From TrEMBL:
Its cofactor is Mg(2+); Mn(2+). SUPFAM superfamilies: ApbE-like. Its EC number is 2.7.1.180. InterPro entries: ApbE, ApbE-like_sf. Magnesium. Can also use manganese. The gene is apbE. Belongs to the ApbE family. Keywords: FAD, Flavoprotein, Magnesium, Metal-binding, Transferase. The keyword Secreted does not apply. This is FAD:protein FMN transferase.
């Protein structure tokens, strides 16, 4: 068996793939298919690309139907469903707040921050209507959608699917901190994945997971943040307030059957916090690990239903 490790740029970061195949396997078509898959996700769902399908929806007037590709409709639908199930802890309708606070293509803007904080906010699942059969969507009031909390996870799933279509039935596929595992390693063990210690200055391993046909995603406050008046503010938004979380966990790591769900639920867990998050995880059969800056050993784990 020959070990293959590859990577490439996407979504402002990099994708990667690790797998083993018999000698003589032509890796070039598989690599192209994986690169094309994540490029398509980025073109459809990026808020950084003015021409993206998501930005076409954001620019549309309320009440008008907008034709959208199937993959974007799939991610929008998953985002709305997880929004409902999480009690709006996960909300894809936070694009105005994300942009205002400087976590989008432009720097933070005080006027936009004020507008986002004062806006009367409705959850995205009350605003956006999807018609998947007809390949279209419409919003019933003004709203700017942001899929940064779910699109990378979906991209990791698409990496894995592109690999599978080229005969690769075991491997580890990742975009940033979102990882999807197919099968097991050649020795029969799961794919080793590190959970990072939430440290601003040093990258270090907190613990290790072994994934077997599963996905994991971590959301935290220690990599993407801004400093306001000496206070570090997380990139994760509080949907009710239109502003960054004030006292989030250091990180939340979620295991799920697909990376799109793990990605979205990791964000939701940051918003819910330890107590509410663990209660939701136990009810839904999610596995979640919370880490706190003052408790580096971490806290809590729900149940993982497979």
């Amino acid at each position: 068996m020959t070990r293959h490790a590859m990577n490439g740029p996407t979504m402002g970061t990099r994708w990667s793939a690790l797998f083993h195949m018999q000698s003589g396997f032509d890796v070039v078509p598989a690599r192209k298919a994986m690169a094309d898959a994540v490029t398509e996700v980025d073109k459809q769902m990026s808020t950084w690309r003015p021409e993206s399908d998501l930005n076409r929806l954001n620019a549309a007037r309320p009440g008008g139907w907008v034709a959208l590709p199937d993959r974007l409709l799939t991610v929008l639908g998953a985002g709305l469903a997880i929004g409902r199930t999480s009690g709006s802890a996960f909300d894809i309708g936070m694009g105005d707040a994300t942009t205002a606070w400087g976590f989008g293509p432009a720097d933070a803007n005080e006027d936009m921050i004020r507008t986002a904080r004062l806006a009367k906010r409705s959850p995205a699942h009350d605003v956006l209507e999807l018609d998947k059969a007809a390949g279209r969507a419409r919003k019933h009031s003004e709203m700017c959608f942001d899929l940064n909390g779910i699109a990378k996870g979906y991209g990791a799933d698409q990496l894995a699917e592109a690999a599978r279509q080229h005969g690769i039935d075991a491997g580890l596929f990742a975009i940033d901190g979102e990882l999807r595992a197919l099968g097991t390693r050649p020795d029969g063990r799961g794919w080793a994945v590190a959970v990072e210690t939430p440290n601003l200055d040093v990258r270090a391993v907190h613990s290790m997971l072994e994934l077997d046909d599963a996905a994991v995603a971590t959301s935290g406050d220690y990599r993407h943040w801004i400093d306001v008046g000496g206070h570090r503010l997380s990139h994760t938004m509080e949907p009710r307030l239109g502003m960054p979380l004030r006292d989030p966990p250091a990180s939340a790591t979620v295991i799920a059957c697909d990376c799109m769900s793990a990605d979205a639920w990791a964000t939701a867990m940051m918003v819910l916090g330890q107590a509410r998050g663990l209660a939701v995880a136990e009810r839904l059969g999610l596995s979640v690990l919370f880490l706190k800056h003052d408790e580096p050993e971490g806290i809590g784990c729900g149940l993982f239903a497979r």
